[in-house]
Amino acid sequence: MIVEEITVRAQIREYIGQNLTKFDDEANFSDSDNIFQLGVVNSLFAMKLLNFIETNFQIKLDDDDIEIVNFSTIDNMIGLIAKKRS
Amino acid sequence: MSTAAKKEIKCVIWDLDNTIWDGVLLESDQVTIKEGIIDCIKELDSRGILHSIASKNNFDDAISKLKEFGIADYFLFPEIHFNPKSASIANIKKNLNIGIDTFLFIDDDAFERDEVKFAYPEVECLDALDYDGLLSHRHLQPSFITEDSQRRRLMYMEDQRRNEREKTFQGTTQQFLEQLQMKFAISEAEEYDLKRAEELTIRTHQLNSTGVTYDYEQLKQLLNSEYHKLYVCELTDRYGSYGKVGMTLIETNERHWHIKLLLMSCRVMSRGVGTVLLSYIMNQAKTHGKKLLADFKRTDRNRQMYVAYKFAGFKEVSHAKDSEEDGLILFENDLSVIPPFPPYLELELPKINITEKEEE
Question: Which of A36, A52, B100, B182 could cross-link to B237 by cystine, CB 3.0-4.6 Å?
Fold first, then answer.
């Protein structure tokens, strides 16, 4: 369980890393940082992130899940994925 | 309103041997172009219909033969190799980013047509024997031809150059977007925009908030209505113009602005300009002290637009039951947070805001 969550976190972080607005060494963010407010990714990325989470973790998000807050921090994304898988 | 009746073919996919020319290129270099085929291709091109190729041949040989006939430039993303044609069509669809039901495939070989039909029943298949009927084919008659439709192939070619640049670009996505030097112009629609606006309502499926189509006459009435605003947007960058790529129709009264339709061409989806138009409307509604409402009607392809509204802070205030009236969702935005305009593009906004009477 724990190991799996670590993997999921790493995968999300890697995906965000591929879509940074800045270069890697300038973009430091924690799992609880709001990536949109910090400006490490642009708002256009939110849509890609949603598609990534659905396809990569094989979950289908409902209308109620589609709130920007669910995608704004890695912690929130982990929470969303856990909820959909339970 | 019905999408089935309005169905239009956006792209014709051609086989080569015994379809565009008589003969088999692998067997002999001496193939002859079929009579009238060049005129047919050029005529469809001028109607804004795209062409591509799915042929089992050697790529270089086939392209040089097409160049010899002077028509190589008419085909976008040609698929010339020995893989199944259904796979070729899937690739073309991916590259053009248009619906699978907007293709017409023309081939002399019944086996190839069946193979495609089996994989994609939505693709219309035509026997090459019937090519002389193409120009009068009922799905190849756009109801009008706009400046944008005539430039369509060129716009895709500019896009290919952009994409090649993007692939080799050393830097972040943001830096790539910056060096495109995009200009996004929002303006109040003029009468000459209306044909393109009608075309957008028919052709746009993914970033389309309701899928409701409006024809020229309806749009003209709305343009002259004091209770409606109609905006169109154009995107340009260093490679050229993407044309008029988006529009919105807003119903206004003394209390609210109500977005009846918001749409943006899928060609500019990766440029993040959909939210720009939305941010502009939100700013305007706030400035005028209006409540902001928006209609959303789910179709089989427009989930992206639902996401765009939600991510821009819209909340569902009512939701008609799916069983009955097509599940119309009404959104409202309290305008407390308005997504900022992206820094990588230059904005050109309507010069003067024609203020409503009740504000005087």
Answer: B182
